[in-house]
Amino acid sequence: MTSTALSPDRPATSRRPVRAGRPLTRASGLGFGVAMMWFSLLVLIPLAAVVVTASAGGWSAFWQAVTNEQTAAAIELTVGTAFAVTLVNIVMGTMIAWVLVRDRFFGKRALEILIDIPFALPTIVAGLVLLSLYGRTSPLGIDIANTRPAVFLAFLFVTLPFVVRTVQPVLAELERDVEEAAMSLGASRFTVFRRIILPSLTPAIAAGAALSFARGVSEYGSLVLLSGNLPMKTEVTSVRILSSIENDNLDSAAAVATILLAISFAVIVLLDVIQRRMVRRG
Q1: In this predicted model, what pLDDT tens digit does every residue of 228-260 receive, in sequence order?
Q2: Sign of CA dihedral 84, 88, 91, 94
Q3: Are 203 and 108 in contact (CB under 8 A)?
Q4: Vertex 264, ends 247 and 89: CA angle to 5°?
């Protein structure tokens, strides 16, 4: 008869219990199926159609479409400007959210409403507003129409609320007791922000940054009037895609759209990896 007891020289190994997934009920399965079908119709199938159209002419045609001098300049301007605007929004959006949550001042409710104006305002109207303020007849004496700073300004206007609105509710839910306890133990305000507050805000900041970048690379309406859409100077990819469609060159338009899709996906994945690492270090 064999003994099942562990010898003293043989340490016992602990195993984590394996959680078995719960099977879907009929209602859950039906809901999941409807959700996936709706998501496929709205997102997956259209994206797949764009990629298929882009590859219809083969790799050489795809490469020629995206490396065309005018197209490459539009992609460089769009992605570079969207990236720079995203960095600005990460800093300024977090600061605005902090002021709205932690401070009390006259006009706070009005500022809360004004933050959402880029969400509600049609982009072509936003372009008209920016042109009236920063065009030839600017009451401020600032004329940046038909220049690259105009593209930056238009991106900055339409992407302003994203980081603010993703960070604000998370910041409002943070417990002040932990911060006060850390400060009572001698931690500086910067240390409290870096070790306690920032790790909690990082996922929200990353989400807002991803939305800001995606909105920037796809912006069209606010640029039509302000930037002038000058080839090799202020033309962005959305205008370039529209020009290809108007010239009945769907393959080229789909190729540029596929490049933007790949870049946006890579940025979203990169931001997710960064925020996970910062949370772990925090």
Answers
A1: 888 888 889 988 888 888 888 888 889 999 998
A2: negative
A3: no
A4: 115
Residues 69 and 232: beta-carbon distance below 8 Å? yes
Of the pLDDT bands very low, low, confident and very high (cuts 50, 70, 90), residue 279 is low
Residue 90 is encoded by which pair of tokens? Answer: 């990460």
Tokens matching residue 121: 């305002």
Task: Answer whether 170's CB lies under 8 Å from 200's CB.
Answer: yes
> 130 and 154 in contact (C-beta within 8 Å)?
yes
Per residue in 95-109, pLDDT (tens digit) is 999 999 988 888 888
CA distances from 127 to 93, 155, 173, 215 (A): 21, 10, 36, 15
Q: Which CATH architecture has domain 58-281?
A: Orthogonal Bundle (1.10)
End-to-end CA distance of the chain: 54
Structure tokens at 141: 């004496």
Does the CA dihedral 96-143-118-71 come out positive or negative? negative
d(C-alpha 203, C-alpha 260), whole Å: 23
Enter the pTM of the model.
0.80
Residue ranges with strand state E in 77-197: none
Instruction: Give CA separation, 41 vs 30, 37, 251, 254, in Å.
Output: 16, 6, 22, 18
Distance, CA of 73 to CA of 30 (rounded, Å): 47
- 170 and 144 Cβ atoms separated by less than 8 Å: no
Domains of the chain: which residue ranges? 22-56, 58-281
